[in-house]
Amino acid sequence: MADSKDIEQQHEDQLKGESALAGVGKYLLHRAKPHLPPWLGVAGVGLAGAGAHLLWEDSAWAGVGLTLSSVAMTAATWWAGRGTSAQRRLHSAITVAAGSVWVTGAALSGPLTGPLPDLFLMGGTVTALSWNVRMVMRRNPDAVGESSDKGLLEKVGLARTKLGTAKVEANKVTVPYALPAGEATNEDVSKSLPRLASALDVPTTAVRYRPDPDSARKGEFVIVPNDMLREIIWYPGPSAPGGSIADPLVIGVYDDGRELSLTLPQAIHLLVMGVTGSGKTEAALDVMAEVLTRRDVAVWLSDPKRGQDLGEAFGACDWVVTTQDGAALMIAAFEAVIPARQTWLGSHGYRSWEPAAATRQDDPAHTCRTDRTACGCPGMAYLIGWFEEAANTLRAVDDDAFTGIAQEARSAGASLVVSMQRASGYQISTDTRASLPAALCMGVDERDAGFALPSEVLDAGANPGAWGNKRPGYCYLVSAGIDEELWSTPSRTFRNNPVTLEWIREKFATVRMPMDEVTATAAASVAGQHYTDRQGPAEGPVPTVGPQRTADTEDDDMTTGEPLVDPEDEGIDPEAELPEASDAPMFGAPAGTEPDDPKAAMEDILRHFESAGRMVVQTKDFMDYCDQIGRSRPWVAGELGRLGREGRLVPAGGHKYRIVPALTSA
Predict the structure, then answer these.
(1) Rounded to a whole number, what is the distance in angstroms from the first to the last CA of the chain?
(2) For 536, left (φ over 0), alpha (ψ -120 to 50), or beta?
(3) pTM exceeds 0.85, yes or no
(4) How many domains does the chain have?
């Protein structure tokens, strides 16, 4: 494609020159030079005809040779013009044929015989002028940027689209376009991308476009002909060891070689989505490995897979749960810590969390004291709630469980990472999905692509449904802080190994700050001993006790490592004979009689559950004690309602309740 700017510049240079008579003459000669070749060609034809007549005037064989030569020259011209436009090819062939026929006639009968002089003067002049006109029409300012391959664009439904100057980079071509005004919009470009990929014989993910935000008909085509992501790149190690969580997490590369990076405080909340075999686990390993090397972050991890993939990170997390009930308790604790963290940040002069909030508060600008002197309060770590295989969690709790957290957590210096195979309407509510603004989307089912990525990203050419599980690690990253042009750019996460997490857990144990007292106190007020008795990062990995069970199994261990036997039952010999049955009630009231204080008996039951480590209980668990407290089942149901109104019990979905630890006097 000719550079229209160069053509216009040449024309402008030709118009510049001296205004004197000598300058005008030079200008006219300069302007005439480009148009002289056709006239010189006509003159050459005349001389050739006259010379041929002197040589072969009476030669019959010369006539035969000249005739064959005319045919051969015309055919050769037609063949040589196969790579040019049809108009130029035809014009050239006619010119050569006319000239060779006149030379043959002039050679045999003489250039001044019969109509030959008139044909030479009229035909030669017309032929030369036709080439001059063609040369003049080549400079057409109105056609600047017009497509150099109209046939291709017509095939894909973008006829009359004008293309600008292509920018060619290593394995990347960017071409500006302008659709015909009033006839097409950028939406038509989106629909034509698969056909354009077919016409160029490249994968559908290799062709995308970037619409101009200031125009409905302009933008850029981006074509990446070769898949540079086929090569596996292993995790190169922490990108910012000992740095802040506010620094980017480098987790892979784009198809043009740029780093794939994510900044969680900017992303706010992240949805990680991909079908089985799409590389979602390795993406999680990359993100987790980067997070755990930062100094000012704490992680709460819900892992229904019980450490199959992220087990090596358990010891580096502040709190780990492995059951549905445990996840529900963690969600409730997360809700409770948000206002506490917001209050702390506000009292220290922070509109939102920033790295300075994680350090000792020695700056008078960030003090909670009324005299505005430095308060010296310990810092507050950034909090990440990581919910692996979140579909299991959402089945056990309300499907809007994350919505309230997501809407308020940003100002509290907290983020959610929600990982699941399908974020469809059957798995997650619309409100919850909308509250997760960032997405790391691996290969998915084509029907689920609309749940994973925004519509404008899909329209721009992103197509995670084309990968499925055939391209492990391939992904799209949509997040605040990332150029929108990269949202539809394919990328690939690093290949990783759980051993990396084990190394990071040990290597950076002294780098990660402990959980701040404000967050810990708020979490303990909801989760009780399930939080206070957890094994923290300093104590190493939390072991998984007992056989592996599915996430749907109802059990009592809320956190990894929780004993499967109640403490008071540890001394029982399972082989010993059972004692004789007794009518003595468990809580001191004679069977069938009312206790002195039935409400106190209900409180005793709650405390019994707490001491056994059961913070999530069901209605039937209370009903089992009806006879022991001398009350009917309707009365127990009424008491549950009272406890709910008093805040001692909180609904946890279905017929389940979460016990809120009772306040005790100092």
Answers:
(1) 83
(2) beta
(3) no
(4) 4
